[in-house]
Here is the input.
Amino acid sequence: MQKIQKIVIVLFVAGFALFATLHEASAIKFPWKRNADKQKYMEADLHFGEENYGAALPLYLELYQRDSSNANLAYKIGLSMLNIQNRKHDAEAYLLKASGRVNNNYREASLKERNAPPIAYYYYGQAAHLNMHFDLAIQAFEAYKAFVPEADTRLKADVDLRITQCNNGKILTASPVNVVIENIGKGINSEFPEYAPVLSADERTLIFTTRRPTNTGGQVDPRDGMYFEDIYQSTRDEEGKWSAATPIGNNINTAGHEATIGLSVDGQQLFIYKDDQGDGNVYSSNQMGSNWAAPMKMTESINSKGWEPSACVSPDGNTLYFTSTREGGLGGRDIWKAVKLPNGQWSKPLNVGAPINTPYDEDAPSIQADGVTLYYASNGAKSMGGFDILVSSFSEETATWLDPMNIGYPVNTTDDDLYYIPTADNAHAYYSSAESPNGVGEKDICFLTFPDRQQKTLTVLSGEITSIFGGVPQGTSITVTDVETGELVGTYQPNSATGRYVIILPPGKNYSISYEAEDFLYQSDNINITDSTDYQMINRPVELEPLKVGQKIVVRNIFFDSGKSVLKPESKAELDKLVTLMKKYPKLVIEIAGHTDASGSDELNQRLSEQRAISVANYLIENGIEKERLKTIGFGEKKPIAINNNPNGTPNKQGMALNRRFEFTILSIDGKFADIVQPIDVPEKLKNK
Here is the structure.
């Protein structure tokens, strides 16, 4: 093999003129012996000139069977194959043959032409590069440079870029990353292309683009002979099994092209690409219960007179990253960003700048769940060929993006690699590939596992909110507050049909979570991840109960120093929610019950729980609540809801934290009091079966 490579290299560097001269001496004045062949060649050339390579290729191949020494045919066959996705790897052999018989006086329109044009070197370099024959590709590109005019700096730069990418490929393939690539299976993949997957942060919803004969309208795109794009979806159950993919619905899919490009972390806002008469634009659709609303074209802040082929939204929903060819970029497609204004509209876009954007094309941004890690595709100087997936992080200290890195081979290949969607923990990812193991079709969606990659230190909070009567209460929302600062982190709405919600909680904060609905008693939760160094998924199903006498709110976001009864400032956010509730219902009367863990003496814990309950009542009174509407009581450590100690006698910190709580019990709603019957705890062995 090494001898063959050396021979080919010599031919590229010094022998192309000899081939051309020898061929001219032996050229046949009229290559087609039959009029039928002549007509076939002219028909093929017509398709070739219109870039309809799928129609041209079989005609050229038929002629080549009768005239395999024709370098012009070999050139056109090879170039046609390069432009057909499932044939591009076959182009190398034909273009190698064509590059051996190059003539600088090539006559493209002549039926008598049997030589190949000098650009055959260039296309052979592409084909060899695609097949990872990097040294042969470099030699082909170097040979082609001899034909490029000195004044054509743009073409010389393009050839030099391809040589750089070949050298990148040699480095990256020599040190492949440790990754396990699994085909996601036939329930989602088919014999037709599946690509551009998008994923909710809890990994329960997967939406993707496919080109199947069952598409809406059943039409074939004449430009590439493939079915029009439609959007499909799948859901994953508790056991990790994906459901059979189904069309997302006629509100989104039409007889034209629709393609997935982005999805919010909770899976309720989908970003779609639609080709509007060649002016590609970003659309968005919101999930309305079980259905998706008709996609709406995004504003002129996002869409321009240029081309906007992709977009994604940050985990908090406040920043949109998108691709555009609009004026003001660094070159080709650039990544831009817009932020959500207080009125809910998007700001004027800002180019994210270097080092993310380059004079080449950048596309398919995907902001990671941590909000600062950006994956995207580039076909520039860091690629090993075509588009490669790069990654960069935003430094808050310097307010700049760090130098991007290629995520490596075999995730990246010499072909185009786009739409890489990492999971929230960053240890896995979904993407589409034409080279996947156990491939089902032309492009398949795959699941990647990186055994050596450290998980992100963040928390994914998810669950379902329902009422005790079933269904989802109207107007349900989740409010997340920073306990330390009292600042609102965000307000979120669950799916109106299922109650499903997904929220990303970055580490380093103590969070107060409130689940609320109109005329229902809110529930409170506390998630303290100030010292978290792990990735975690927390499932919090919530069942809301209507306001009625006897109902309780269990609260854990009221804070005191150990052994003291003076409220800490971090308690304000939680108590203000209770103030708001009591002002909304002016006849509401509550009992404030304090509970402690079992550390300390019974007498101390009893007194401490009573004093703390009084401190809470005083805060409510100071904020406009009549003291007649408040009753205080302390139970000390008498009513634990969790264990205080482990079986070996050591303290159980999690259990003790659950026991340190306040319970607000409704005594009256309308000024009328009723007897409150407390449930009696019956031992399991004594319960009536």
Notes: The radius of gyration is 33 Å. Residues 154 and 416 are 22 Å apart (CA to CA).
